[in-house]
Design goal:
binds 2-acetamido-2-deoxy-beta-D-glucopyranose; single chain; 21-stranded mixed β-sheet; 8% helix
């Protein structure tokens, strides 16, 4: 039976194999593969463009070859070309009339070459492409002057990649002809300054400035931008222009991995949905306002535009409305900061917040009653703080009917509101590891308790109670529950009696590491 089954499988596999490898049956000209109107000549040791491919090709891929020059007539036989890709060659120069017969070219990938050598001639060639839409110039050792020359008159370009070059500052000329620019990738340059660079780019929606050297971003007023990524810089301040009445289109702002001390001063009207602020040094300082101890401290900070002071920005540090419009926010990532409390009304200003990550901060108390988290809250991570007190009224907890993932691990909790988890009707996963919270042996009667009765949490699937100093779990502790994950590791000398057996139908992962439990018979 088994052998028969095996041969049947082989017979069935062979025709499949033929189906999956059709490439070899296509013609290979000049070591290129032709597939419909695409010629694939990647990694063929080519030092020039093959001259005798089909005249009809629309896409030509020449990545990973050794082409150093695109000569004046090398593309003349391919008038239908719309996509040309020359990434990872040694390209130094595109001769001025190389594209004389390439009127339909829309996408040109020149990533990872040496265009810094022949950028002037190459610029003349690019100017002759009336339909150029996507241009990749990443990793070409270009500085800002070379870039400006290459981009001159490229009015049709919508997608531009300049990542991995040597651009230091953006002035008002560099993108001034790119009226249709929608997406600009400037990652991994050495940028430290932007001076009125985007005045012509009214359609710019996505801007990536990650991994540069910006010390601050002030006077932000790009109202049409939808995604701004300025992660991995040295940004101390992010300040939007406060005097604009327009609604900013900004939906995603990534300022993670910077040096922010203050919450960014966001636009006063926006559609911001995702705000990434992890790995900064951020806290709130409202408690310093009107504090006599600090009356002589500076309460405003001014930023001077290096050129002619055209755009000085003054910010009053303690002003609440500088937090900006958070009314559309869904995701707030504050991992790895120094947040010790929330200013009054801060959480309430985010009625659509569904994911809040505060892992690794300095919170000591969390008051669900006063903060009034949104009913949309789905995931709350307050692990690795200094929480020793959680306050929550029944109303406040009942309102959190969407809360599904709750991580409280690695805090200093040794008591909790007794019904904290049981009132969260949608709760699936709780991590309370490394706190001193027990599993109740008898139902607690007080409103706060040193133990939790998990049987009260109906939908719970994943429960993590590592290192909670639990000694005894009663036989009935999990009866009626349908946990799939249970972690009780690092509870030294734990006595689990017959509690786990109650979970045999559902349990998939059980952690008992470092508990001295030697053997466990599962089914009763
Ligand atoms: C293409 O040109 C090469 C030499 O450059 C030649 O060997 C080959 O036969 C030509 N192929 C066709 C189809 O003309
Ligand atoms: C090309 O740009 C130059 C200056 O950068 C300008 O003088 C010229 O008018 C532009 N040409 C076109 C056709 O836009
Ligand atoms: C820009 O180019 C870099 C390197 O070539 C690449 O990693 C990145 O994904 C590109 N950006 C976009 C938006 O395609
Ligand atoms: C911002 O860019 C960094 C670096 O490329 C990337 O890791 C991160 O995911 C981007 N952020 C967003 C929100 O896309
Ligand atoms: C914004 O609106 C206010 C009041 O409606 C007005 O006084 C102010 O001039 C407007 N600012 C701009 C830049 O339009
Ligand atoms: C003023 O600051 C000091 C030191 O941080 C603090 O102890 C005090 O409570 C503050 N006073 C007020 C009124 O916030
Ligand atoms: C503030 O500065 C004034 C003048 O320099 C000084 O007389 C006063 O004592 C200072 N106040 C505090 C609270 O340090
Ligand atoms: C900006 O500040 C500088 C220095 O204080 C000042 O000379 C300049 O006039 C200010 N410019 C504006 C537009 O306020
Ligand atoms: C929590 O907030 C409520 C309502 O604002 C307040 O009455 C209570 O004292 C607060 N609890 C703590 C511990 O701050
Ligand atoms: C609950 O959270 C999920 C995941 O974020 C979201 O898709 C859903 O819309 C939320 N439900 C409510 C009622 O807010
Ligand atoms: C809770 O947070 C801790 C520390 O931040 C992390 O190690 C753990 O994996 C998280 N728990 C869950 C269930 O995701």
């Amino acid at each position: 039976m088994q052998i028969q089954g095996f041969t049947a499988l082989l017979v069935w596999l062979l025709p499949m194999w033929r189906l999956l490898t059709p490439v070899t049956s296509h013609p290979t000209v000049n070591r290129c593969q032709l597939m419909q109107n695409t010629a694939v000549c990647n990694q063929r040791q080519l030092s020039s463009v093959p001259p005798n491919l089909s005249q009809n090709i629309e896409e030509l891929q020449l990545n990973y070859n050794h082409i150093t020059t695109l000569t004046d007539d090398c593309l003349i036989h391919y008038p239908a070309l719309t996509t040309l890709s020359l990434a990872c060659n040694e390209l130094q120069t595109i001769q001025p009339t190389a594209f004389q017969n390439s009127q339909f070219l829309t996408s040109l990938n020149l990533a990872n070459n040496n265009l810094y050598v022949g950028y002037q001639d190459s610029s003349e060639a690019l100017k002759t492409l009336p339909m150029l839409n996507a241009l990749d110039l990443s990793e070409n050792k270009l500085d800002e002057e070379m870039t400006a020359v290459l981009l001159e008159n490229l009015t049709s370009v919508e997608y531009l990649n300049l990542s991995g070059n040597l651009v230091q500052r953006l002035d008002e000329n560099i993108f001034s002809h790119l009226y249709h620019l929608k997406e600009l990738d400037l990652q991994r340059n050495v940028l430290f300054e932007i001076d009125n660079a985007f005045h012509s780019n009214r359609k710019l929606e996505r801007l990536n400035l990650a991994f540069n050297n910006f010390p601050c971003l002030t006077d932000f007023h790009m109202t049409e931008l939808v995604v701004l990524n300025a992660s991995y810089n040295f940004i101390d301040w992010f300040i939007s222009r406060q005097d604009l009445n327009e609604t900013f289109q900004l939906e995603t702002l990534d300022l993670s991995h910077n040096n922010l001390l203050f919450f960014p001063f966001l636009p006063s009207r926006s559609h911001l949905q995702n705000l990434y602020l992890s790995n900064n040094r951020l806290n709130f300082y409202q408690h310093l306002e009107d504090n006599v101890t600090y009356t002589n401290m500076t309460t405003t900070v001014e930023f001077y535009n290096l050129k002619n002071h055209a755009a000085n920005v003054t910010a009053e540090l303690w002003k609440e409305d500088l937090h900006g419009d958070l009314s559309s926010l869904q995701l707030l990532d504050l991992r790895g900061n120094r947040v010790s409390y929330f200013p009054q009304g801060f959480i309430r200003s985010m009625p659509h917040l569904s994911r809040l990550n505060l892992c690794i901060n300095c919170l000591e108390t969390l008051n669900f009653t006063s903060e009034r988290f949104s009913g949309a809250l789905y995931e709350l991570d307050v692990s690795q703080n200094r929480l020793n007190h959680i306050q929550a009224s029944e109303d406040a907890l009942t309102a959190l009917s969407n809360l599904t993932y709750f991580n409280l691990s690695q805090n200093n909790l040794n008591f909790l509101p007794t019904r904290l988890f049981s009132l969260l009707s949608n709760l699936r996963s709780v991590d309370l590891s490394f706190n001193s919270i027990n599993i109740c042996l008898v139902k607690p009667t007080n409103t706060v308790s040193h133990c939790i009765d998990w049987k009260d949490v109906p939908k719970l699937k994943q429960l993590y109670l590592k290192g909670c100093n639990i000694k005894t779990i009663s036989s009935s502790a999990f009866s009626g529950m349908s946990l799939t994950h249970l972690d009780l590791s690092d509870n030294l000398g734990l006595n689990i009696e017959k509690s786990i057996q109650k979970l045999w139908r559902t349990l998939q992962h059980l952690g008992l590491g470092n508990t001295n439990i030697q053997d466990l018979t599962f089914r009763t």
